[in-house]
Predict the 3D structure of the following.
Amino acid sequence: MDPNLVEELKKMFSNDPFAKQLGIELIEFSPGYAKVRMKVENSHLNFFGFVHGGAIFSLLDQAFAAASNSHNYSSVAISMSVNFINAPKKEATLWAEAKEVDKSRKLGLYEMTVRDDEGALICRCDGRVYRIGKPFIGDGGA
Amino acid sequence: MDPNLVEELKKMFSNDPFAKQLGIELIEFSPGYAKVRMKVENSHLNFFGFVHGGAIFSLLDQAFAAASNSHNYSSVAISMSVNFINAPKKEATLWAEAKEVDKSRKLGLYEMTVRDDEGALICRCDGRVYRIGKPFIGDGGA
Amino acid sequence: MDPNLVEELKKMFSNDPFAKQLGIELIEFSPGYAKVRMKVENSHLNFFGFVHGGAIFSLLDQAFAAASNSHNYSSVAISMSVNFINAPKKEATLWAEAKEVDKSRKLGLYEMTVRDDEGALICRCDGRVYRIGKPFIGDGGA
Amino acid sequence: MDPNLVEELKKMFSNDPFAKQLGIELIEFSPGYAKVRMKVENSHLNFFGFVHGGAIFSLLDQAFAAASNSHNYSSVAISMSVNFINAPKKEATLWAEAKEVDKSRKLGLYEMTVRDDEGALICRCDGRVYRIGKPFIGDGGA
């Protein structure tokens, strides 16, 4: 894949209003892979004072979106299953990684994990996309 | 269940920093049930200009948290499976409902749906909780 | 849909080697819907003497396959999430129902439930199919 | 863990009526881990002539049951999410592996994969158990 296109896609995925509101940053990005980061703030907490499940999910969903659209073909999330394992600490920095498990012409499967800065596993997720198949930058990719 | 306790719980669940940041409001609440609402804002959009999956999930997760903690016993989400069906419009108001499907001493199962203001189904989710079993207000409930 | 085609499809789906081996019978069938039945036998039990999860899943999967292929277009299961709620009794007769929640040109979503003959909920499942789009009998359907 | 107890558990898990009916054999077994095998037979096929989803699920569920009960504490499957990736060939031998991802006093999370004899990924599954906490052989384990 053209490195310029990879750079252009990374820039596009970094410019995400919802991710920005939550403080989610795209750290690593390559075809089929993405790593994002979020430092836990008070605004991420729920009524019990723990990190909200929605904040954790949003982080991993951002990695999922970047990885599944990394081939410059529009992908739409259709099914996701999440298992929450450990509750993160309030002062944690969380990292989510998305890896491509399978990719066919119309479907894709991605594995996401969220870990804290000490490597503790916060949650796991498998996510399925349906690939609409239109390149969204230039003439397209894979 | 004591109506005063229901009112107290509703107040507590409404006071959720993450839900407030996203504009999520608790509209209806009773033991085993919750309905929440979120008007889509530009800050909920992703890099494609669609409503971010994390925003939709956060909405349903808020209904889930309220319904699963409605008996005044701490519940922790352990597994959630989501199916995304229709993409909401940018100017939509979204409604999420959570209903109790099953509750035992240590486990619970909840069904969540998200619909727009015209009733179109945006997504479905089944969520499992593990019930820690400590009342968090007063002497506790069911 | 032509009633003769519905009858032909029902006959085809009833002629399933794996379902036969397990004693699964197709009881009701119409476009987007199927109901199947299995009387628990000793051969369905696991090493603890309970009904094997695989036997329960196979029952609901048979309903899923019939309902999702009921439009005479090949559908392939891609994602399923199951929640087990109550363990069935050894002498139970189990019923699984599959209902169409959503259907687009290429995707479908189905809701499955398994109940015993007293109506107790044994498990719930959401299942996604990818629709290959080839009619498998005659000129095809919806 | 006492090697004699491991051996006794392996023997017990091998003596599973449903797994025997389907030709599923327990090949490897250790605390938190199990590998099982099934040679595809005509009796595993569905009405299309492909391997039935229920047969594939039963295989991985058998690995899951062995791994999650490997500590000699009763575990009950509560949530499973499966992603089907490639359809196995009719003459394939299928292998399912279950690995422990997390284990607490009352909960456990396991990752299952099914592969054919050439290593092609047939499906992936995450499974959650609730641990009842009673040893079923002697005085019990971890």
Notes: Chain A touches chain B at residues 12-13, 15-19, 21-22, 42-48, 52-55, 57-59, 61-62, 64-65, 74, 76-84, 87, 136 (CB under 8 Å). Strands of chain A lie at 24-30, 33-39, 75-84, 93-103, 107-116, 121-131. Chain A has one domain: 3-131. Helices of chain A lie at 3-14, 17-22, 53-68.
